[in-house]
User: Which sequence fits this backbone?
């Protein structure tokens, strides 16, 4: 006998999961929705499997150094992301996420969104997310979220199984309640299939934003809203004081729409507790019935509007209108993950670049960071993501997912600098000199503040190296120190860095603060607020190295040699990996300089 619910789904044309779909026998989100008769037709996460039986890739990353790609999969079937695959592949360079794999049987993968096609369209080609910008913990594992700094988004305009023309559907996502703005639009869900605004009711997407769609709003947000095109709704047509918003680091946001008369908004803390229903009532005037087109977007609006920021960890879309009981079970599953960490992204291992007049190297305007954005000087602001730069081991400097770039690859005196996609080019290489200048070897010129003008908004340039204050820049972000066999110089244990902590070799981890070392002009190497130190100031062969308070001593000076070794002039010995043993946790020492692979260490 066919149930009434099944007949209802058939009568309005809902597409159910095809033969071969994941068995709905587990307790992961898509197992739960499948068992409730509303199967997932799209399921994305850079963090974990959303089916207990899923064993495929989660996402694809591309190295900017050589444009090669690899997939990041799972540690186990139905488990968490194997972020070590990303760390090994992306060590010492920048990677971007180029594709998000749909875990559902529908195969609705998302790729980087292209430019709009409508006449007069003002939103251009989006960039891929910096793959290492959002390290968090889930299930006790170090994983990466999807960091959207603006001008970054993913899309699929040719899907299967997704609701169209008034069919019912459900959508949830786990996102950040701290990395948000009021720009349009940090959306996830059903959108137009042509990157245009095709009018009201042509979208049915979740939106997490500080934009108040219908004033007055309760609190300051962010609010879980429905973006239905030409309207972002906290409830029905008017103000909805029951939508109180949620600024938790991790937020569960839910949108359900029967496509004909009603929609529902729910939200909660993704780390604990249940869901709150903010709205369960009629669709706004002019939106009944819906006219969804079945495209899928993540990170931007339906028409490609890409001025919003956000952080995404997981999300699904379903065929049919999920029950509140299914939503509650999914929320319980989400909270069991144990999400933790800073969800704003753009933090460690990024640091500031202080320049002339005590100003900071900055990206002009809001934290969008699109190609061609002016790189200037501005008052230092500790909360400004666009003033925090990662010092990559290929000597590039990156923020907002892009690199400090000499415009057009120019080599002429006075050529301006800007932000551009990281590409490994010589016009994106910046080498700190002992006098504090940043040399671009390709041009032979240095980063320069024109006429030593430290006024906010002054665009920087390259100029003949002259050692003046206009060319003194302190890179505080730190870079990785590449060691033997592709391992990195590391501080043993947790990121506490107390005096006497062992300095060792360890698998390179782009998110690890204790693997990012500041190369100070004094020749010292600093991380976690302390310096690479020869124990007891020793000068004997085999003396171990450790972390210690920076004190300007000769036992903390390391000079890069032409053969790749790091010489300590006081002892006349070089940093060394004992017996060329590259196992994780091997404590480093000083030893007679011999130029062997055990003494090859590349400073950023």
Assistant:
């Amino acid at each position: 006998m066919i149930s009434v619910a099944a007949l209802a789904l058939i009568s309005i044309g809902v597409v159910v999961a095809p033969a071969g779909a994941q068995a709905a026998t587990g307790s992961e989100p898509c197992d739960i929705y499948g068992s409730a008769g509303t199967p997932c037709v799209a399921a994305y996460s850079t963090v974990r499997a959303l089916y207990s039986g899923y064993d495929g890739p989660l996402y694809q990353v591309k190295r900017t150094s050589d444009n090669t790609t690899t997939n990041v999969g799972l540690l186990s079937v139905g488990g968490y992301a194997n972020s070590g695959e990303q760390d090994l592949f992306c060590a010492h360079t920048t990677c971007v996420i180029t594709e998000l794999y749909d875990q559902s049987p529908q195969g609705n993968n998302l790729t980087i969104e292209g430019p709009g096609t409508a006449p007069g369209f003002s939103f251009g080609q989006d960039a891929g997310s910096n793959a290492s910008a959002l390290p968090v913990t889930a299930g006790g594992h170090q994983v990466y979220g999807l960091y959207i700094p603006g001008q970054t988004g993913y899309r699929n305009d040719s899907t299967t199984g997704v609701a169209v023309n008034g069919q019912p559907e459900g959508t949830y996502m786990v996102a950040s309640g701290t990395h948000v703005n009021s720009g349009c639009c940090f959306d996830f869900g059903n959108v137009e299939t042509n990157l245009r605004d095709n009018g009201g009711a042509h979208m049915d997407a979740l939106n997490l934003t500080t934009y108040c769609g219908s004033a007055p709003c309760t609190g300051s947000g962010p609010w879980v809203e429905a973006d239905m095109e030409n309207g972002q709704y906290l409830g029905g047509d008017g103000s909805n004081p029951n939508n109180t918003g949620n600024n938790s680091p991790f937020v569960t946001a839910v949108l359900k729409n029967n496509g004909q008369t009603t929609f529902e908004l729910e939200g909660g803390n993704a780390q604990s507790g249940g869901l709150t229903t903010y709205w369960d009532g009629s669709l706004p005037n002019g939106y009944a019935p819906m006219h969804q087109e079945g495209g899928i977007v993540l990170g931007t609006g339906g028409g490609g509007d890409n001025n919003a920021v956000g952080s995404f960890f997981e999300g699904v879309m379903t065929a049919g209108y999920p029950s509140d009981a299914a939503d509650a079970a999914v929320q319980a599953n989400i909270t069991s993950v144990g999400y933790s960490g800073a969800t704003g992204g753009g933090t460690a291992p990024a640091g500031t670049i202080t320049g002339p007049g005590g100003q900071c190297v900055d990206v002009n305007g809001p934290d969008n960071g699109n190609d061609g954005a002016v790189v200037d000087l501005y008052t230092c602001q500790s909360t400004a993501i666009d003033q925090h730069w990662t010092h990559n081991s290929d000597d590039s400097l990156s923020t907002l997912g892009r690199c400090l770039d000499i415009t057009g690859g120019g080599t002429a005196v006075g050529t301006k600098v800007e932000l551009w996609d990281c590409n490994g080019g010589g016009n994106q290489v910046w080498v700190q000199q002992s006098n504090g200048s940043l040399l671009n070897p390709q041009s032979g010129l240095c980063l320069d503040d024109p006429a030593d003008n430290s006024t906010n908004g002054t665009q920087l340039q390259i100029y003949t190296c002259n050692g003046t204050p206009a060319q003194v820049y302190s890179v505080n972000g730190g870079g990785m120190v590449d060691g033997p066999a592709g391992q990195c110089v590391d501080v043993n244990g947790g990121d506490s860095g107390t005096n006497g902590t062992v300095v060792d070799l360890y698998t390179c981890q782009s998110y690890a603060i204790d693997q990012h070392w500041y190369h100070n002009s004094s020749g010292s190497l600093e991380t976690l607020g302390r310096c690479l130190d020869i124990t007891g100031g020793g000068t004997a062969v085999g003396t171990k190295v450790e972390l210690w308070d920076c004190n300007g001593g000769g036992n903390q000076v390391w000079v890069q040699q032409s053969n790749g070794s790091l010489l300590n002039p006081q002892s006349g010995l070089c940093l060394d990996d004992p017996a060329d043993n590259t196992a994780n946790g091997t404590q480093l020492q000083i030893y007679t300089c011999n130029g062997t692979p055990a003494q090859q260490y590349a400073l950023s």
